Amino acid sequence: MSSASRYTYLGPEGTFTEAALHTLPEAATRQLTPMVSVPAALDPVRNGEAQAAFVPIENSVEGGVTATLDELRGGSRLMIYREVLLPIAFALLVRPGTPLAEVKTVTGHPVAQPQVRNWLAAHLPDAVWESAASNADGARLVQEGRYDAAFAGEFAAATYGLEPLVTDIHDAENATTRFVLLGPPGRPAAPTGADKTSVVFWLRGDQPGALLEVLHEYASRGVNMMRIESRPTGEGIGQYCFQIDSEGHVQDRRVGDVLMGLRRSCRAVRFLGSYPRADRQPPTLRSGTADEDFVAAADWLSRCLDGRD
Amino acid sequence: MSSASRYTYLGPEGTFTEAALHTLPEAATRQLTPMVSVPAALDPVRNGEAQAAFVPIENSVEGGVTATLDELRGGSRLMIYREVLLPIAFALLVRPGTPLAEVKTVTGHPVAQPQVRNWLAAHLPDAVWESAASNADGARLVQEGRYDAAFAGEFAAATYGLEPLVTDIHDAENATTRFVLLGPPGRPAAPTGADKTSVVFWLRGDQPGALLEVLHEYASRGVNMMRIESRPTGEGIGQYCFQIDSEGHVQDRRVGDVLMGLRRSCRAVRFLGSYPRADRQPPTLRSGTADEDFVAAADWLSRCLDGRD
Amino acid sequence: MSSASRYTYLGPEGTFTEAALHTLPEAATRQLTPMVSVPAALDPVRNGEAQAAFVPIENSVEGGVTATLDELRGGSRLMIYREVLLPIAFALLVRPGTPLAEVKTVTGHPVAQPQVRNWLAAHLPDAVWESAASNADGARLVQEGRYDAAFAGEFAAATYGLEPLVTDIHDAENATTRFVLLGPPGRPAAPTGADKTSVVFWLRGDQPGALLEVLHEYASRGVNMMRIESRPTGEGIGQYCFQIDSEGHVQDRRVGDVLMGLRRSCRAVRFLGSYPRADRQPPTLRSGTADEDFVAAADWLSRCLDGRD
Amino acid sequence: MSSASRYTYLGPEGTFTEAALHTLPEAATRQLTPMVSVPAALDPVRNGEAQAAFVPIENSVEGGVTATLDELRGGSRLMIYREVLLPIAFALLVRPGTPLAEVKTVTGHPVAQPQVRNWLAAHLPDAVWESAASNADGARLVQEGRYDAAFAGEFAAATYGLEPLVTDIHDAENATTRFVLLGPPGRPAAPTGADKTSVVFWLRGDQPGALLEVLHEYASRGVNMMRIESRPTGEGIGQYCFQIDSEGHVQDRRVGDVLMGLRRSCRAVRFLGSYPRADRQPPTLRSGTADEDFVAAADWLSRCLDGRD
């Protein structure tokens, strides 16, 4: 099977990531290979051994997935081609027949812990929590008898011969994880009218107000920021780069104009792609920022240059 | 003589305007026609009966010359092709033989009055001031015996058979008037590396912060404003348009980018020309705003669009 | 009669200024003295010989009245205590019996000319215009037979034995002049809920973006600017100070906060008063900018300082 | 022993956190209790059973420590009273006598993994990594024979009967972790002239540009931001709060003014304390932002209100 038909993903099997990946129509026609970590999932993409990798990037409870964010800013450039939003609800998986009263030890991915903390305090106040490498791995450890129960997706129960004792557990309303499909640099997905554009940029030296200037590049073209994440550059405490997701597609003139402004005013900027919004919400355009306004302004400028008007 | 060889100017003869006009090399080869007012000087340009008009636009003591500013924002569009700065110092012109002690009445253009007010208070505290239609007209009225003395340029003495009793009178240090050569819309003067660009614009409706947004268009491209003047639109108290002179030439990418931003964010914008700065001071470019930075940013964007980088 | 009961105003009698002054209730109980110029009207106030002076400050057609603006920024500080808006419409005053066809020469204040220019072009295209020192002075010159007609307020006809041949002449719809009552520094008028606050300020040296910073002081507290006027400082071309009228009263916390910001960020700032808006329109407060929001924020800060919250 | 003399910290013993804690002079006189997680370390502080907790908050390679950040924004308010910076270098700990060639499995805290990734690729390309709950826990697991080697601080070797096979391992130059001492709300530490102030705030609803407005509150008072971190509010994807560390102390007028601005313009703001900067670098004050400038501005405003100046 050629690399063109292979997707890697953050494994193991039986996690929310795999469940999210299956919502992509093309997943049915790809070889799907679970990997042990985000870097491990991305290396084959960078080496040409896989077409794309599917990994979590952001969780509405835990925030950015730093492994993914850091792979996007470092190493060879990757681009985002798709995003998927998956509501997150946990099931408490036990070996068949285990009653709640006998659950003394519970496990799960560290990211799951804050999302079930209140539920644990209310229903299993004396249970001891230990982290597992993944939710699926936690399920496996329950299967092996190492823990009494694991928090995981209900869909993981069958794989590990467990049963869901309690379902739909989530401390926060609307807990959602965002996943992205990452591939090598290429032409962005075609605009759909409800798109998102992601970049990571490094501010110039010690320039005070440099971040303010970048945000103005967005604000002055009416391009709404949807997410801003600061990340250390690895050059020492207090050195940050920023990743911004905004509405719009790089083919939209207002977005392209923002990107050119960033390119000029920042030390460096990396284009991470334009791709359809999972929530399909179209943007609200501010007056003077539609493509035709940019075209009209460029036409007018060229008339000024030529001495017409 | 054809219209192409005729310049009008704000007359009458013998004023500072005429003196400034003669500093333009091409003035020697043009028919120079004094007119009674700024509108009267501009009408022949608009009608094709004169090539250009030379009028004052700003005085370092009195501020903007409203007649000129209002002609630039109203009527058919005109453009600025040249500017001239002339230091202003007055002479007190009298009929030959008049001693200072006998000067009881003085005249001059209303604009001259605040520039000689302190001198008058110190040397002729009892003299009565009456305004004349122009400094030259004041000289003529002295010639006719209607007033004892006139404030005017020393160069006006000969024309009216007067003598300069006192020279180099000016309350303010560095009193200077700026004049402009206005013509019909055409290709701007070639960039010299030390240029100025003028626009007038009308903000959108009641948008609060709209002026702030326009100033950001300049600031974000490091284009320094040299003058901002608010003018009523004539649509009622509280309705303004603004005229801004900035450094740079419309052919400079950073300036063109500002103008396109104005075109998009304002209700209307009128390009008034790019022309050599009279003071020949080149701009200080901020990092990321040189033409090559704009070109590099546009190249990069097109690589992003194509899937290269 | 003591100085406390005397108001000066820009004369002569029979002008729009006098008409506007009579709209102030207290005018009926004051001695009203016309003066030949704005400076002449203000000197007695500065010397303690008059309580206040009533002068025009802005015209919806012509813009700021520079004599008044310059007196506000120079000399000893004066404050604005009242404003009056007067719609401006001219009458064409002639000696009784003069038909329109016989009007060959017309006069009026230079400020009147652009406001009747279109009317003149339509109805008296061949009439010659000459400026007079004031509209009332123009009427007097018609009385003396020097001109055929004068543009002035209809109310001036009786004073000079003339008749209004045409009335309600004004090129622009809504032509309005704003007048102010200026007095020596003192406690501002009490807040009415619909007030205005005026300042003049000088930016720091060559700081680029300094004007932007000042406008942000207003914008960040949601204080709407109603007028911004740039004026030369008299220190040379390109040196400006700015006068801003904003909504709100200095006793409003958001306005006081803006003023303190200006005081800190500008080279100099002069408080020109808070006074009732002539149009009585109350401001629309932005969320977080009411007095109680400022009080709550100060209380919270003091709890933070004390270690409570 | 009373709660007043007890500090909790993120354990177990033998981690970098414990090493950093010992750099605080008062640590010598406190009972130091290791806890299994950040929440576990903070609960006793919130319950009054411990005086303070010492936890990592930021790593120059990994970024913010989300458990700590999330505890600061949620639950009852805590305040930062001290910060400590500790350079991070790992040792590879093995059972005495193990040669590098026999190391097939390695462990360590997940946060350690990206910091030793390059070293591993270069020196132990075939070794399998598995995460441990902490670096110290990894050392224990090596002691128990479960893994061949653990990455941990060199100081942990003795505790677990291991020997440091390789020392000073760190992929990034200047890898540093920042730790904070958290206590219940109280009076902030006294200003030292080189301080830091931390806040977390929630923007108002859907207001576009709301983050820009907050950054302006800092920029307009010349208060330099040192770190900005976006965190999900837990209310759904795209809902963020922000934590900002800036230079300055809440007792500095410019900082207090910023905080009041945040309080007014944000939906909510939580003051997290002012404390000495670990790097002891004093701020560079911008013109007009010193305490005396704020005092002078307040004095001037009160003179304006009183009618003096």
UniProtKB/TrEMBL annotation, chains A, B, C, D:
Which residues are annotated as site, described as Essential for prephenate dehydratase activity? 177
Pull one GO CC term from this UniProt entry: cytoplasm
Q: Name one GO biological process term.
A: L-phenylalanine biosynthetic process
In this protein, which residues make up the domain named Prephenate dehydratase? 6-184
Q: Where is the ACT domain?
A: 199-276
Example of a GO MF term: prephenate dehydratase activity
Enzyme Commission number, as recorded: 4.2.1.51
Reactions catalysed: prephenate + H(+) = 3-phenylpyruvate + CO2 + H2O
Which EC class is the enzyme in? lyase
Query: Could you name the domain of life of the organism this protein comes from?
Result: Bacteria
Gene3D superfamilies in the record, alphabetically?
3.30.70.260, Periplasmic binding protein-like II
Alphabetically list the UniProt keywords: Amino-acid biosynthesis, Aromatic amino acid biosynthesis, Lyase, Phenylalanine biosynthesis
Annotated metabolic or biological route of this protein: Amino-acid biosynthesis; L-phenylalanine biosynthesis; phenylpyruvate from prephenate: step 1/1
The UniProt entry, under SUPFAM superfamilies, shows: ACT-like, Periplasmic binding protein-like II
Q: Which NCBIfam families match?
A: PRK11898.1
Q: Quaternary arrangement and interactors, per the entry?
A: Homodimer.
Annotated protein name in UniProt? Prephenate dehydratase
Provide the species name.
Streptomyces qinglanensis
Ranked from the top, the taxonomy reads: Bacteria, Bacillati, Actinomycetota, Actinomycetes, Kitasatosporales
